[in-house]
Write a structure and sequence with these properties.
Chain lengths: ~120, ~70, ~675
């Protein structure tokens, strides 16, 4: 299967990414999505299989891979963490959506007071 | 308007002491009349000075003729 | 003596509708109780308005007539207000009415010009002309002495100026004190008798001129007298101008004080704006730092998971590497053994090996080759892959950004709070400034005020110098005149001259009585005021070691300790209060002008003992005393007990609504 060249988050996940960007804590929504990817790996590693996870929709904004991973670090990381991974950007999209939804849930329950609380 | 003389009593007493000691030729009634005229016309200096002038003129007319 | 009979207020300030305070005809004290905002100071100002037609708010600035009228009345369509003061003076009953009402044709006022004022004074049943009204009001309570009758406890510090020899304010208060004590009667008498003397002296001179014997002398005297008249007129002009300028200086200084306040507000506004800008810049900086940190925060986040996976991979790699290594070690032995078997000689122990042992060795070699065969090709491949993965994972053990982010976030929260606080303060300062007018126009008007004040001070200096020069000229001319007149008296012998001379002599005597009377009266007054003020002070003061007051030329009073020596320095605000009250009481006692004393909150900074002592002396301040106080400023019941039968009436200002106060009798006190 060919890997993604650009990706769309789900609508809800996109909203969370935009919220984090407008909060002033992140420069762009895609930076927040990257953060959410790492968040998912740290806190929800066993809950998601990024190879098979399917987002609810693809109604979020369109992003090019270059804006997410200009230096290729994400692809290298995901291949190292998931040894069977041959489509790192597909994994990345799924992890971002999952992570953003989890972060979104936390914001709904606790509010968004700081970013360090997510680290 | 008639003056309440009690209100200027102290003032008159001071002048009377000086008059009696140093200037007995000046009648005390004249001094009292001038004081009352001035008291009644503090807000109308012109009137006050006219009345004072008249009082002294009358006194001098009598005194100097008699002198 | 002036005595108030009643005061009726209609729609003024918080007093909605028509409300009346009746004063007793007996000598004694009336209390009017009211809490802050209920109209006590307004009542004091109503008396001031009634008698002088002037308003005086806290800062003495111009007032908006519409704002003076009762708010609820305005909403009911009634604009304007009225005050009626009934009083008795020297056996006559007077009724003074002042009213502002809307001009014909105006239904809703938008400016002061929409109102017209009516003022009239009734004497008995007859309405007096406006000239007679002005004349009578100036006699019964001249405006210059208002401060001794309408006493605002919050403006006491001006009495401290009396202690300063060169203070202009002190000089003005001194003037007021001398007015209330009747000194102007004497000074006016001296001035007018001097004028008469001048006239008869001129007449004498003319007689001398018409006499051949004394013609020349007479002419010289006439010339000098003309010059003297000119200089006297100039001196009078300068004095009047100086009085006006001093008044203007007072107004400008008062405006300056207000401007100082405004200047301080402007400076505060500027400082706050700068502070907010700096803090916002700091906040932007922190947000920028946070954004930079969050860009790579994902790296720190994955650290934990990377470490976990890495330890698993390392374990797997170890197993394979151990297997690989043990094969390498075994290979080395196998090689030695194979070589020994083929040469039938052991290099290690340097012994030949017999055939039977060689067979055993070859079997052993076969077994070992089986056991230590090393990694399978799959295992080798896996090891390589794992080693690459391990190396990759090792490069991804990034440190966490949590601590750094927490610091930035804390700083951000702190600066955000500081910005809110500053913005709140700035809003309050701007609102305060807007009360003074448009902020842009303020600094122009302030600059003008400073310029005007500088010019005014220069003018005052010039006028004083002018006065001094004129006085010097006058003294010189007088001296010359005295010499010439002495010569004339020796020379002239005619009957006309004798009579003229006699008239001048008598005028001089009359004038001297007044001239000498001024100092004598002043000194007499001062010693009586000093004695009466001391009596009052000692009765009020709670310090038994403060035994007397001493008066200076300005009627300022210094406190002396029983040990003598220098006066008590640096009086507390409380004692300043007590001294001022003692001065007022003493002035009333010695003044030819007698009238009621109305005091608004005179107890401000006094301790309970002082307060009680002041209550005790109230009846001796004047025959009619009206005291405006807020409840709890003094203990009401105790005050009643202290005054006993001297307390004649009580009123209470009671709140009906926020904008409506009723003046209600508290209780009839017999």
């Amino acid at each position: 299967m060919a890997d993604l060249i650009n990706f769309r988050l789900s609508k809800k996940a996109n909203e969370v990414a935009e919220l984090l960007a407008t909060s002033g804590y992140f420069d762009f929504a895609v930076t927040a999505a990257k953060f959410a990817l790492a968040y998912a790996i740290k806190y929800h590693f066993d809950e998601i299989n990024p190879a098979t996870y399917t987002p609810s929709d693809s109604d979020g904004s369109n992003y090019g891979i270059g804006s997410l991973d200009s230096d290729g670090q994400i692809a290298i990381l995901l291949k190292a963490i998931y040894p069977d991974c041959t489509t790192p950007y597909l994994y990345a999209r799924n992890l971002m959506v999952f992570g953003l939804l989890k972060i979104g849930e936390r914001i709904e329950n606790e509010g968004l007071k700081s970013i360090s609380a997510f680290l | 308007m008639p003056m309440n003389k009690i209100e200027v009593e102290e003032l008159l007493k001071v002048l009377e002491d000086i008059r009696a000691a140093k200037y007995p030729e000046i009648p005390s009634e004249l001094i009292q009349s001038i004081v009352l005229a001035e008291f009644e016309n503090q807000d109308n200096r012109t009137e006050g000075s006219i009345i004072t002038r008249r009082l002294i003129d009358d006194f001098l007319r009598q005194s100097v003729h008699e002198g | 003596m002036l005595r108030f009979i009643s005061l009726t207020v209609e729609d003024f300030g918080p007093f909605k509708g028509s409300q009346t305070i009746d004063f007793t005809s007996d000598d004694g004290v009336t209390f009017i109780w009211g809490n802050n905002g209920r109209g006590k100071t307004t009542l004091l100002n109503i008396f001031r308005y009634a008698i002088y037609g002037k308003f005086q708010n806290r800062r003495g600035t111009n007032v908006n007539l519409t704002m003076l009228s009762n708010r609820e009345s305005r909403s009911e369509g009634r604009y304007g207000f009225k005050v009626v003061l009934r009083m008795s003076y020297d056996g006559e009953i007077y009724e003074l009415t002042r009213q502002f009402k809307l001009r014909t044709g105006v239904s809703r006022p938008t400016k002061n010009d929409d109102y017209e004022q009516t003022v009239y004074l009734k004497k008995g049943t007859a309405i007096l002309s406006s000239e007679d009204t002005d004349h009578i009001l100036k006699i019964i309570m001249p405006e210059q002495v208002a401060r001794f009758f309408l006493f605002d406890g919050e403006l006491l510090q001006e009495y401290e100026e009396l202690l300063m020899e060169d203070s202009d304010t002190g000089a003005q208060i001194k003037k007021s004190i001398e007015e209330i004590l009747g000194v102007p009667v004497l000074t006016n008498g001296a001035t007018d008798t001097a004028a008469v003397l001048g006239a008869y002296t001129n007449a004498k001179t003319r007689t001398a001129q018409s006499n051949k014997q004394t013609e020349q002398l007479g002419s010289q005297i006439a010339t000098l007298e003309a010059a003297l008249q000119g200089h006297n007129a100039e001196l009078e002009r300068l004095r009047e101008e100086l009085t006006q300028e001093l008044g203007r200086k007072s107004e400008l200084e008062s405006e300056q004080n207000q401007n100082e306040h405004v200047k301080a507000l402007l400076a505060e506004m500027k400082a706050l704006e700068n502070s907010i800008a700096e803090k916002k810049a700091r906040r932007e900086g922190l947000l920028s730092d946070i954004k930079n940190t969050t860009k790579d925060a994902w790296k720190g986040l994955i650290g934990f998971r990377v470490n976990e996976i890495l330890s698993d991979v390392e374990a797997e790699v170890k197993v394979l590497e151990d297997k690989e290594n043990s094969q390498k070690v075994a290979q080395h032995f196998l090689k030695e053994m194979k070589e020994a078997a083929s040469r039938k000689h052991c290099n290690l122990c340097d012994q030949d090996i017999d055939d039977a042992l060689i067979l055993k060795m070859e079997e052993r070699i076969k077994v070992l080759e089986g056991n230590y065969g090393g990694l399978t090709p799959e295992e080798s491949g896996k090891l390589r892959t794992l080693q690459i993965r391990k190396a990759t994972l090792e490069t991804m053990r990034y440190p966490s950004s949590k601590e750094r982010l927490e610091i930035y976030e804390r700083q951000l929260a702190a600066v955000t709070v500081e910005i809110s606080d500053d913005e709140r303060k700035l809003k309050a300062v701007k609102e305060e400034l807007e009360k003074h007018g448009d902020i842009e126009e303020l600094s122009t008007s302030m600059q003008n005020c400073v310029k005007n004040l500088i010019n005014c001070l220069k003018k005052i200096d010039n006028l004083k110098e002018g006065e001094r020069q004129e006085a010097e000229q006058i003294a010189n001319i007088r001296s010359s005149l005295a010499t010439l007149n002495a010569k004339l008296d020796k020379t002239a012998t005619g009957e006309d001259m004798v009579r003229a001379r006699r008239r001048v002599e008598l005028c001089e005597m009359i004038h001297n009585i007044f001239e000498e009377g001024i100092d004598a009266y002043r000194n007499n007054l001062k010693s009586r005021v000093e004695k009466d003020a001391t009596d009052l002070f000692v009765r009020i003061s709670n310090d038994p070691d403060y035994v007397r007051l001493e008066i200076n030329d300005n009627y300022g009073l210094a406190i002396y300790h029983k040990d003598g020596g220098d006066p008590v320095p640096l009086r507390s605000a409380g004692f300043e209060h007590v001294v001022a009250l003692a001065l007022i009481g003493a002035l009333h006692k010695n003044a030819p002008l007698r009238g009621p004393v109305i005091m608004d909150s005179p107890f401000g900074r006094l301790d309970p003992t002082h307060k009680e002592n002041i209550i005790k002396v109230l009846p001796s301040l004047s025959e009619q005393v009206v005291l405006l106080a807020y409840t709890h400023e003094i203990d009401e019941q105790r005050a009643r007990e202290t005054l006993g039968s001297s307390l004649k009436k009580e009123y209470r200002l009671t709140r009906q609504t926020s904008f409506y106060t009723r003046i209600e009798p508290n209780q009839e006190v017999k």
